[in-house]
Write a structure and sequence with these properties.
This protein is mainly α. It has 23 helices and two strands. A two-stranded antiparallel ribbon has the order 1-2. β1 and β2 form a beta hairpin.
Length: 597
Amino acid sequence: MDIFKKYIPQLAIQTVRRVILLSVCVVVSVLGTASAKPTADFDSLLHLSKDMSVDQIRHKGRSVFLEQKDPHTALLWYRTALKRPTDNFTAGEWESLARIYSNMGHIYYYEYSNAQQALVSLMKSAGICESHGRNNEGFALTDIYYTFADIYTSYNDLSKASYYLKKGFDVSLRKDILKIGYSFANLAWISILNDSVPSIRKERELFRRAEVPDTSVLVRYCRQILGAMDHIDNNDYAEASRLADIALTDRTFATPDNPDITILRYHVIALLISSHLHLKISDIPGTATRLSEAETIITSNGLFDLYDFLYKEKAAYLRLTGNTSSARDCEFHAMKVRDSLYNSQKYGLLRNIEEEWKVSEMENRLKQNEAERQILIIKQNKQQSIMLTLVVSAVAILLLLLWIFRKNRMLRDTNASLFHKNIELADALSSSSPVFARTAPAAHNDSPDSDSEDCRMTPTNDTDGRTEPYKKKKNCTDEADTTFERIRQIMSENREIYNPDFTIETLSHISGIHSRRISQAINSFTGKSFSTFVGEYRIAEACRQLTAPGIRPTIAAVAENVGYKSRTHFSTVFKAVTGMTTTEFIRQANRSLENRL
């Protein structure tokens, strides 16, 4: 027994230690698994979403949040879209990304009460709308501004809440008219409870002219509250309170039994508006009933941000009933609520995030302005380069035109000179004395029968002023002279030279002179071949026919008349002999005739 008494406590202690150690291990394992689960889930969702578009991911996350009531998984789905590169995003993809950030802000604030993280997501969504929604006048994301307003309302910063509600109202009015009721309803209760109804006169007129369809319960509620605010402007609080009671008792949008916190919130706000207006007409029982119901709902559902309005209304009610001490207590409680909201650490963080956002937004605008300035400079440089190129091109074209004009003038002068020379050639040939405008150098002939170079004849002028085509040099033999004279006589008198089949053999048959002697004589006296020699006679006749008075034959007919079967061949020889085309020659002839007349 002593042994048992000695060892049983030790065994018990060891067992307890082991149980504790095992429990710690289990807890650590569970925590490790829990911490690793989101990463594993995110990786698997990232793999599943690789073939999905950004809009499909948005719809998937939204369905998980609304249908499965799983905000954590919805956030994971949304985060997969944030991994996509945005370099080649279309306008539709940017809008889907903006909606994803807006939905994330909604989940962070309403599901996890994380106003700081919600504010960051909402700012990113608003930034996308500002930078990528300009061409479409902004994306219709009214939820961004509504969630902004709810965040600042929960911290009792009503001026900021009103600012974002007005922005949401403007977007709804332009792009999403069916969501206009939310912003106007919140603007209405903030302005009524703070006695600042005139501050939203512009929004009231716009809402009245917008003719919003009564498809939303909030829109029907807003129409009744709008009528109440019109009577508040005229200090007719009795009619205003009556319309507020209709909006409250009509059950158009809420009942106290509805578990939806947003619906209950609107019901409390309607009660506070009605009690505020009944207090204006000193309706003590009506005010007390509504304040009591509002306090019950606020307290039981933890609507902490509405305590400030509740205490202020209760303080005013207690002062009206003469209970000054209790009124002071309510005012003190309201002051504590406002102080706790404004000076909380979280609200300080919220303002820091907002300031960082403003600085970042300013830096982005500066960067954008700098980028636009650089683009403008590049455009200006391109325009200057284009203008300089155009000026240089214009100067070059002008110089080219001047050069062409000068060359054309020189060409006209040259053509005129050639024309006159050809006229002289035609006149000389018509008197059986062919004039050769150019004397080509004689080819060196090694034949023993050939005459020396000194036998060539050169054109001179006789005493009558007529051009003598050739004059025999002193060293030419009488035989060569007789042969060449015979050839000239046949060429001037015989029409056979205009026969297309006329050859040197034909000339040899007519003259009785061997073809070799004919070729040597022509080459010795003119330095030209037989075909060139005959071509000059033919072209001279062609010039005569082209310049003859009366009806002139066609160029094709002239070519055939002087012995050319092909007009192309005729034109080539004509240009080689005269230095002009047939058309230019005829034009010069016409001008010369006009000048003579």
